[in-house]
Fold this protein.
Amino acid sequence: MSYPGYPPASPYGQPPPQGGGYYQQPPPQQHHQQPPYGGPPPHAHYNTYQQPQQGYGQPPPGPPPGQYGAPPPQPYGAPAHSPPPGTYGAAPPPSPSYYPLGPPPAGYGAPPPHGYGQPPGPPPQQSYGAVPPTPTAYTPQPYAVQYPPTPPSPGYGPAMNIPWNPDPDADRLRKAMKGWGTDEKELIRVLADKDPFQINMLRDAFQRRHRRDLIADIKSETSSWFEEGLVMLARGPLLNDVHMLFNAMDGAGTNEDILNDILLRRSNADLKAIKAEFSRVCHRPLEEMVRGELSMKTERHFMIVLGATRAEDSAPVVKADIDRDVDDLYNATEGKIGTDEMRVCSILSLRNDNQIRAISYEYRQKYARDLDTVIQKEFSGHMKDALLIQLRHGTDKYMLQARLLEDAMAGMGTKDRLLTSRLVRAHWDRNNMRNVRNAYEQRYKKKLAKRVQGETSGDYQRLLMAICGEPI
């Protein structure tokens, strides 16, 4: 679909089309071919945000390093690729490489085929359930059709054997904590640069070689927020999520920010892994504990999330279905007296990021108002915060993380637990961390590391700076 008046340099957050807009014809293997919605416009690139289509912390498959740039030619209607990366808010540079020094090596943490720039083009046009039977009518089928599942993020799937020997680093950790005194800098150097697979192997090697528990040793040798940051690293992403969820709901009160950070906008595979690990470690179902901490419609909202039934990342974006969701959102908010909260919660909890990005764009086109503004006007409290996270993750997950980091440092005092956990969670995927730093600098005109440095001190400061990618 070609959008009249769509400017070449579109505003931040507005998804550009890729050789035919959001909606294209069904894949070639389907029987009923159909012209693209509105006819195929000329191929163009736009200068807005680009966000990888990926699960939490998991870069999608892409071209080999050194071959970043325009996607190879493909038949019209084949699954869309993203346009080449460009500088945020400016025309794309002539160089096809996003990183000035060249992309990092492939493998864990390698960048996706599009850098921090404009949103990716959507998947091909077809209904959530089946291909439209005729060229003139859309008849969406139920949402039960299965698409290839989004793989779990690193650290949330089965253990992997990687070609890395953890024994030398396990010995370095033991030496740093043995005897009188502790070598805090050595602890930072060893733990801050490990990926989820390495950290799990390192923890096992420490136990095997020294008959000691790494996390218990860290707790006995360090203190305060420095201790908490090291423990978050040593646990790895999955185990740390479980402990943080339990602590957020244990005792009086509930830390709603932690629930939002860990549970919202996660892939189905990650949520299932978190629920299984929570049950194993805490000996009770996660859903049961969440029900006891939340109430009424917010509880129902999180039960939808914990059902782990959102559309997989491979599920396509379809014009008819997006239009229906846009109208449902309007009728549940601005189009009626009162608000149908559960309808809004259901749509934002069950659609994937590409679908939410298309919904946000179409809502603005049809009703001349940002969906973000509508949610802020129609909702309040915990539900408003949760819905904004779901919407903003869909439109730009890197900028969302940058804003959440700033929220942890803004105002009187620093929310150290939120700041530390958000930095640790972002750093497990190195490409994600790189994009978050760029997003932060773009929005706040200041380097993330400098901002963190001004809010912390001592060994705690050095740890967070290392997590941000700064040398020790």
